[in-house]
Specification:
The complex is a heterodimer of chains A (318) and B (457).
Chain A lengths: L1 H7 L6 H8 L6 H5 L6 H15 L4 H13 L11 H6 L8 E4 L2 H5 L2 H11 L4 E2 L9 H5 L5 H14 L3 E4 L2 H9 L6 E4 H7 L12 E4 L13 H10 L1 E2 L18 H4 L1 H12 L8 E4 L2 H8 L6 E3 H15 L1
Parallel strand pairs in A: 1-2, 1-3, 3-4, 5-6, 5-7, 7-8
Helix pairs in contact in A: 12-13, 13-17
Chain B lengths: L1 H10 L4 E2 L2 H6 L13 E3 L4 H14 L3 E4 L16 E4 L6 E5 L4 E5 L4 H8 L4 E2 L12 H6 L7 H4 L6 E7 L5 E3 L13 H5 L8 E8 L1 E2 L3 E9 L2 H13 L6 E6 H10 L10 E9 L1 H16 L4 E4 L3 H12 L1 H4 L8 E3 L5 E2 L5 H14 L4 E5 L5 E8 L4 H20 L18 H4 L4 H11 L13
Parallel strand pairs in B: 2-4, 3-4
Antiparallel strand pairs in B: 1-2, 5-6, 6-10, 7-11, 8-9, 8-10, 12-14, 12-15, 13-14, 13-18, 16-19, 17-19, 18-19
Classes of the chains: A alpha/beta (318), B alpha+beta (457).
The structure holds flavin-adenine dinucleotide and iron/sulfur cluster (2 copies).
Chain lengths: 318, 457
C-alpha cells in the first residue's frame, strides 16, 4: 500500500517493488480486517495494471500472458477446451445452463469435471464448445482480458443460456465481477445446495474440514452453500480461521505461478489451521486444492468428489 | 556501501535491507510524517544493537529505533535518514516472576502478547492502548503510552522497574533494580521512559504486573452533547470513585463504531461516556450504581452492559474508532493532527466546547473521543486528502487546539508522544525546561545520532 503511494508520486520502480506488488494473492483478508475500510486488493490490481502499462513485468507474468494468448489457457496446454466432455457425453447445443469448466478442470482435473457435469446435466446443462480461460489470471496480474471475455461471451450467447455455473472460485469471481452483467452466475455449490434432494446423497462415516476459497467466500460471501452440502453427507469440523476470516491457500493472484516458494509457505500456514482428527480437507476451488495439497498430510479433495463418494454410497446400499 | 557490508557482518545479510521497496515502507509510521532511511536492520540480540550503535557512532550516522511503527507523531520515522533498528525480532518473554510481581521482556514484544502470557497467572500489564494487537512494549515505553485503563492504573511509566539500554556510544547499561521501589540515585528508568529513542535504545525491560480484577462492569451514559458529558466526568471523578476506564465518544465516533461493528449497540446521541469500574463483585455493583447516580442529572439515558461479552465487544470497537472514522465517508481519510491533548479535568467541558466552536468556525467535522477520565482527548479530523484547502484548515484547527490546551495548563501529548508532529510546540509547553532537556540530550548523545529531529531537541 505504501509502495502504491510512492509509485503514484513518481517513485522509480525497481525489481524489488515489482516483486512486492506481485506477491499479493488478492485474498482480501486485509480488507476484511482493516478498521478504516482500506481496499488493498483494488489498489494492487490497479497498480499491477499501471506496471504492465509501464512495461514493468516479470518473466513468469509474461509467460502466463503469452500462454493464455496463444493457447487460451494459462497453463500453456494445447488448446482442447471442453472436447473431453463433448466426446464422452451427449451434450445439448442449446440449454438454460452453461457449465463453465475452467482451465484446471479442462487440463488438470478432467475426471472431476466429468463428474461435475454428470451431477448437474439432468437439469439441462451444456458446455461451451470452444471454452477459453475466463481471464482471471490475466486480470489479477494486471493484464487486460478483453479478447478472452469477448470470445466466451459469444459462445455463451450461442447456447441461449440464462445462467453460468462455475466450479472454480476464480472463474466464478471473474464472471460475477468482471464480465458484463448479461446473465446469472452461480457457483456449483449454490446450484447443488438448491437441488440437494435430487442428488441422492448417502451419509459417509467421515469428518472433514472446509477451506473457504477467498474468491468464493470473502469476495462473494458464499459460505453457507458448501457447508450445507458437506453437512448433508458427513461431519464438518471448522478450521481455526474460517468464513470471512479464513486464511488464504496462497495460490491466487498469480503468486503460485510467480513465487512458488512463497505460495507454498502460505499454504503451510493455512494447513496449521486444520483441526485435529479430520479425514479430509474439502474445498471447492481447484487452485486451492492443488496449492494446499503440496503442504498437507491430510488429503485435500474437492467438494464435488465428496458428493460423488456420497452418491456411490447410496448405490452400494442398493 | 561500505556501511552496508559492515552491517551485514554484524547482523547477517538477511537482516539488513537496502532495497528501495523495503526502505520506503519504513519511511512512515501511522502519522503523516515521512523520511527515508538509508538502511533497515533487524537485530536479534542486545549485543547486535550495541554493535550497530557503535558503528553509527563511528560513522556519525543517525540511528532510529522502531517498534511496530504504530506511533502517531512520526517518532519512528528517520527524518534525517540513517539506520532504522527494527526491534520486532527481539520479541521474547524472558521471565515471568509472579512471586516478585514482575515480568522480563525484550522490547519488541507486542503488547497483546504480553497480556496473553500473563493471563494464565491471573495477572496483567494495565496500560491498554488501542493498538494492543500491534504496538511493541519498546514503543510504548519510549512514548510513555497508556490507554483506556490509565485513569485508575496510571501510564506505562508506573510499571517500569528496570531497563537494559544501549547508550549512544554503544555501552549497555541497566537503569533500575528488581525491587518495587528504590530511592537510590537518579531515576534513569524514568528518564528513558518517554524519551522516544533520543537517549538510548531499550532492549529489555522488567515490568511490574498487577492482578486481574475479579469483575468489571461498564456503564453507558448518553448525553445531548459533549459538553454535558465533560461535566459528568468532573462529577463522577469528584464523587470519589476511580473508574478503571472513562471514555468519551461523540456522535461521529459513535457512527464510526457502528460502521466498524454493526452488532455493537450504541445509542444515536450527541455523546456517550463509557465508564468501567472493576474490583470485587460487590464493590463493582455499588460503584456502578454511584457512577449512574453521578451522571443522572446530566445524562439522557444510562445503561449497564449486560454481559462480559457485551463490554468486551464495546472495548474492541472503541479501540479501533480512530481508524474506523475513515469508514464513514470513503472520500475522507483520518489524519492524525491536533490529537492527543491533555487538559486538567476541570477544564474538560470548556475544552470540548472550544473544539465544537472550532468545528463551526472552520466548517470542518471534528470527531472527539478519548480517555477523558484522565483529561486526554483525541480530536480526529477526516478530510479529503486531495484538497489543499481542507488540509490547511485541519492544520489551522490543530494549531488552535494545541495552543488552547497549553494555555489552560495542559499538554500537547498525553500519550502518543511528541516526535516530529508536535515538536514545534515544545518551546511553548516547556519554556523553562526545554533547555534542560537539551542539556541532558547533549550529555548522553553528544553527536546527536539517536533519533535526531524529534521532540524539539
Ligand atoms: C489504531 C491505533 C490506536 C492507538 N491507540 C493508542 C492508545 O490508546 N494509547 C497510546 O498510548 N497510544 C496509542 N496509539 C499509538 C501507538 O500505538 C503507541 O504510541 C505505541 O506505543 C507505539 O508503539 P510502536 O511499537 O508502534 O512504536 P513505534 O511507532 O515504532 O515507535 C514509537 C517511538 O518509540 C521509539 N522506540 C520504539 N522502540 C524503541 C526501543 N526499543 N528503544 C527506544 N525507543 C524505541 C521510536 O523511535 C519512536 O520514537 C495508537 C495507534 C494506533 C495506530
Ligand atoms: S495477500 Fe491477501 S492479505 Fe495480503 S495484501 Fe494481498 S489481499 Fe491483502
Ligand atoms: S489495517 Fe487498514 S488502517 Fe490499518 S494499516 Fe492496514 S490499511 Fe491501514
Amino acid at each position: 500500500m505504501l509502495l502504491a503511494k510512492g509509485i503514484s508520486k513518481g517513485m522509480d520502480v525497481d525489481e524489488s517493488m515489482i516483486d512486492s506488488i506481485n506477491t499479493c494473492t488478492t485474498c482480501g483478508l486485509c480488507e476484511q480486517m482493516c478498521p478504516a475500510g482500506a481496499k488493498p486488493t483494488d489498489v494492487f490490481e490497479e497498480l499491477r495494471r499501471d506496471l504492465v502499462r509501464m512495461g514493468k513485468v516479470k518473466g513468469s507474468q509474461l509467460e502466463l500472458y503469452n500462454n493464455t494468448l496463444l493457447t487460451g489457457n494459462p497453463l500453456g496446454e494445447k488448446r482442447s477446451g471442453t472436447s473431453f466432455i463433448l466426446e464422452q457425453r451427449d451434450v445439448p447445443k442449446v440449454a438454460d445452463y452453461v457449465y463453465f469448466v475452467g482451465c484446471l478442470g479442462s487440463y488438470r482435473f478432467r475426471e472431476d469435471a466429468l463428474r461435475t457435469y454428470d451431477l448437474i446435466r439432468d437439469v439441462g446443462v451444456t458446455v461451451l464448445s470452444d471454452e477459453v480461460c475466463c481471464g482471471s489470471p490475466l486480470l489479477r496480474t494486471g493484464f487486460d482480458a478483453d479478447d478472452l471475455i469477448r470470445h466466451n461471451l459469444e459462445q455463451i450467447e450461442k447456447t441461449g443460456a440464462h445462467t453460468i455455473i462455475a466450479s472454480c472460485a476464480g472463474c466464478y469471481n471473474t464472471f460475477k465481477n468482471d464480465y458484463p452483467d448479461r446473465f446469472n452466475v452461480v457457483h456449483i455449490t449454490e446450484f447443488l445446495a438448491e437441488h440437494m434432494d435430487e442428488l441422492g446423497l448417502g451419509r459417509l462415516d467421515l469428518t472433514v474440514t472446509y477451506h473457504d476459497p477467498c474468491h468464493l467466500g470473502r469476495a462473494n460471501r458464499i459460505f453457507d452453500a458448501p457447508r450445507k452440502l458437506i453437512m448433508a453427507v458427513c461431519d464438518l469440523k471448522e478450521m481455526k480461521t474460517n468464513r470471512e476470516n479464513a486464511r488464504c491457500c496462497g495460490g491466487g493472484g498469480g503468486v503460485r505461478k510467480g513465487y512458488p516458494d512463497l505460495s507454498a509457505s502460505i499454504a503451510k500456514k493455512r494447513i496449521m489451521d486444520v483441526p485435529d482428527g479430520v479425514d479430509n480437507i474439502v474445498t471447492c476451488c481447484p487452485l486451492c486444492r492443488v496449492n494446499l495439497e503440496q503442504a498437507s498430510d491430510v488429503p485435500v479433495i474437492d467438494l464435488l468428489d465428496l458428493l460423488y463418494i456420497a452418491q456411490k454410497e447410496v448405490l452400494k446400499a442398493v | 556501501m561500505m556501511l552496508a557490508k559492515e552491517l551485514e557482518e554484524i547482523l547477517g545479510k538477511e537482516n539488513v535491507s537496502t532495497r528501495m521497496s523495503e526502505l520506503y515502507c519504513y519511511s512512515f509510521d501511522a502519522s503523516g510524517v515521512e523520511g527515508l532511511p538509508d538502511f533497515v536492520v533487524r537485530p536479534a540480540t542486545t549485543e547486535q544493537v550495541a554493535d550497530v550503535v557503535k558503528l553509527a557512532d563511528m560513522s556519525n550516522i543517525p540511528v532510529v529505533a522502531r517498534g511496530a511503527g504504530s506511533g502517531l507523531c512520526g517518532g519512528a520515522v528517520p527524518v534525517e535518514g540513517g539506520i532504522v533498528l527494527d526491534m520486532c525480532s527481539m520479541d521474547r518473554v524472558l521471565d515471568i516472576d509472579i512471586d516478585n510481581l514482575q515480568i522480563t521482556v525484550e522490547s519488541g514484544v507486542v503488547h497483546e502478547k504480553l497480556n496473553k502470557a500473563l493471563e494464565p497467572y491471573g495477572f496483567f500489564f494495565p496500560p491498554d492502548p488501542g493498538s494492543t494487537a500491534m504496538c511493541t512494549i519498546g514503543g510504548l515505553m519510549a512514548n510513555n503510552g497508556s490507554g483506556m485503563r490509565c485513569v485508575k492504573y496510571g501510564t506505562t511509566r508506573n510499571y517500569v522497574l528496570d531497563l537494559e539500554v544501549v547508550m549512544a556510544d554503544g555501552r549497555i547499561v541497566h537503569t533500575g533494580s528488581k525491587t518495587l521501589k528504590t530511592a537510590s540515585g537518579y531515576d534513569l528508568t524514568d528518564l528513558m521512559v518517554g524519551s522516544e529513542g533520543t537517549l538510548g535504545i531499550i532492549t529489555k525491560a522488567v515490568l511490574k504486573v498487577h492482578p486481574l480484577p475479579h469483575s468489571r462492569s461498564v456503564i453507558l451514559s448518553s448525553f445531548d452533547n459533549t459538553t454535558l458529558a465533560g461535566k459528568a466526568v468532573v462529577k463522577v471523578l469528584s464523587s470519589g470513585i476511580i473508574p478503571s476506564a472513562c471514555e468519551i465518544l461523540d456522535s461521529t465516533a459513535i457512527k464510526a463504531v457502528r460502521r466498524f461493528d454493526p452488532s455493537v449497540e450504541l445509542p444515536d446521541v450527541g455523546a456517550i461516556l463509557m465508564i468501567e469500574v472493576d474490583g470485587m463483585e460487590n464493590a463493582v455493583r455499588e460503584e456502578a450504581a454511584l457512577v449512574g447516580k453521578a451522571c443522572e442529572e446530566l445524562a439522557s439515558a444510562i445503561k449497564v452492559a449486560e454481559s462480559g461479552t457485551e463490554s468486551e465487544n464495546l472495548w474492541k470497537a472503541r479501540r479501533l474508532v480512530g481508524a474506523a472514522i475513515s469508514k464513514i465517508d470513503v472520500k475522507r481519510t483520518r489524519i492524525y493532527v491536533g490529537e492527543d491533548i491533555g487538559v486538567p479535568i476541570k477544564e474538560l467541558p470548556g475544552m470540548l466546547e472550544y473544539v465544537r466552536s472550532l468545528s463551526e468556525e472552520f466548517d470542518i467535522h471534528i470527531m472527539t473521543y478519548g480517555h477523558i477520565g484522565d483529561g486526554n482527548l483525541h480530536t480526529g479530523m477526516a478530510i479529503d486528502m486531495l484538497s489543499e484547502e481542507e488540509l490547511e484548515s485541519a492544520h489551522a484547527v490543530a494549531d488552535r487546539i494545541y495552543r488552547r490546551a497549553i494555555s489552560v495548563g495542559g499538554t500537547v501529548s498525553a500519550e502518543h508522544g511528541v516526535g516530529r508532529a508536535r515538536a514545534m510546540y515544545m518551546e511553548l509547553e516547556h519554556p523553562t525546561s526545554l533547555e534542560v532537556m537539551r542539556q541532558i540530550k547533549r550529555a548522553l548523545d553528544p553527536k546527536g545520532i539517536l533519533n535526531p529531529g524529534k521532540m524539539g531537541l
